[in-house]
Amino acid sequence: MKEDFTSALPLSPAALHILLSLAGEDLHGYAIMQEVARQSEGMYKLGPGTLYDNLQKLIRREWVEELGRRPADDDPRRRYYRLTSVGRGVLTAETARLAEVVREARVRLQIGKPRRA
Amino acid sequence: MLRSLYRCALHLHPPAFRRRFADEMLSIFDQAHGTSSALKLLLDALFSLSRQWTLRPEFWHDLSPAASPQPASDGIPSFYTISPFRPRSAAVMNGLVLSLAIFCMTCFAIRYSWIHVLHVRIPEVQFERSSWIPPKGAISGTSPALKQTPIPPPPEKRIPASDSATPALSQVPPPAAAAPQRHAARAAGQPDTARPQYKPHVSNQQGRTTSAAELPLQSYEGTYVVDSPAKLRIVITVEDENLMMSMSGQARLTLAQISETKFAVQGIENCWIEFAPASGTMGDETAPELQLSCNGQRYTARRQP
After folding, report:
1. Which chain A residues are closer than 8 Å to B59 by Cβ?
2. Does the CB of A65 have a partner CB in chain B at under 8 Å?
3. What ipTM was assigned to the predicted interfaces of this complex?
4. DSSP B89-140
């Protein structure tokens, strides 16, 4: 049975970028910041305060979970985070919503274009 | 320097946030290059500090250790919190004020109940007459002993004296006249075998006792004179099986029986009459004197021949 995630939408930009960055692989906090900067081509940068504030909320909602293991040669202060199935569902729903917004925007922008005679 | 400030800013975060993320945030700070990046991170930490304390009260306390129940040791129960709920300070203050208000109301109600005695009708009391012990002065027949007896508490404290509230008084059987007879029997050396057992009496609608006629109230009938003040005359009569009292210049009042020899003056609060038991000698079965107690003052009146 398909769950309905529409009540959790829309996501804030920070939450969307964090979920999106964790959609590919498990990452630690600093890697999430770098991934968000890469996704947005440097236009959106997350500070540690904003990142961990959002991570805290996402963990509470069980969209993201913290992993107990980490690579042996890594900094022991780092923690790794993973997108849960619920978080993946929310991200999918948000992506679909954004796609609809983009499609609608394209339609409206196409209509608004002046036609050539 | 900036790292110390950054650590200090992290240390000021709520405990739950600090325990969970402070080390990782510090590791990110350690990877920053240049003073400008460090300053940006410090500024970010200060913003985060204000945000966590002002906008995230639900994350102030770490719930993860409390959520996992601790195993109980041998014989010692362990307790853990299931719900992460923590009331707001305003709610705690409201609860405190409400508790104080309820406490004050309870104290006021207790105090009110002490001051205003509730007049509760007690249906009947089985009065075992054989357990009645006459006062010392009654046996010896001397009045000074009666005078030395302490003033009993006002009957109105327990039983109302008004006409509307005295059916309980009239329900008490009037055994007053039996005392002189018993004393006479004792004086003659006869065993006191004819003691009647009192049974519960039910008042009729007029508030009169139905058993009053069984005992001779006439033994109290007569004129009594108080030596001081100014030869006050108290006339005791029996009318309709009730004792009536009239003083010089005043209306007649009904006496409601309280005990063997004590009668409350109906219509006057804190006022009652106590007859001295008859001596029983020479066939005299009349009360030699009475004591009138009104509002703490006490007068002794002797029977006039």
Report:
1. 56, 60
2. no
3. 0.81
4. HHHHHHHHHHHHHHHHHHHHHHHHHHHS---PPP------GGG----HHHHH
